[in-house]
Amino acid sequence: MANREVEKAQHAHPEGETLFEKIINKEIPAEFVYEDEQCVVFHDVNPQAPTHLLVVPRKPIPQLSKADDGDQDLLGHLLITARNVALGKGFDRTGFRLVINDGRHGAQSVYHLHVHILAGRQMKWPPG
Q1: Which residues sit opposite 55 in a β-bridge?
Q2: I need a labelling partner for 22 at 20 to 30 A (CA). Which of 28, 54, 61, 118 fits?
Q3: Sheet of 51-57, strand order
Q4: Residue 116 appears among annotated catalytic residues
Q5: Pairing status of strand 32-35 against strand 51-57
Q6: 13, 43, 52, 114: which is the annotated catalytic residue?
Q7: What is the second-level CATH architecture of the domain 2-119?
Q8: By the 8 A CB rule, do 38 and 77 touch?
Q9: pLDDT for 79-124, tens place per residue?
């Protein structure tokens, strides 16, 4: 399953409206766990762990490497939101992993910045 995500990333491109924009605009249904004026959190449709959530900014930043210095507050908000959601689900007791994929070699398959929250199983190291 993970190799399929890498394969998708090899063919993904940053042009046009993304799947995440359609989810944010509620054109495509998703199970929202949290939302505020800056971001949304929903379940990944292709989970890589028993709990796999995505923290997605409403602002369409294609990649972390393309974020502006002016996005500093938003980027911090994404991490604080990820932490709060993970703590709210009790993962402070067992642990969790946050992942941001960037670009083709980083296995980014949707060009809209997002933070993965992975939990519910023992993570492996090294991750890549």
Answers
A1: 41, 115
A2: 118
A3: 32-35, 39-43, 51-57, 115-119, 96-99
A4: no
A5: unpaired
A6: 114
A7: 2-Layer Sandwich (3.30)
A8: yes
A9: 999 999 999 999 999 999 999 999 999 999 999 999 999 999 999 9
Per-domain boundaries in the chain: 2-119
Quick check: bond before 126 cis, omega within 30? yes
Q: Which residues pair with 51 in a beta bridge?
A: 119
pLDDT at 36: 98
For the stretch 47-51, contacts whose Cβ atoms lie closer than 8 Å and that sit 24 or more positions apart, written own/partner, are 48/1, 48/2, 48/5, 48/116, 48/118, 49/97, 49/118, 49/119, 49/120, 49/121, 49/123, 50/119, 50/120, 50/121, 51/89, 51/91, 51/96, 51/117, 51/118, 51/119, 51/120
Write down the pLDDT at residue 17.
Answer: 85
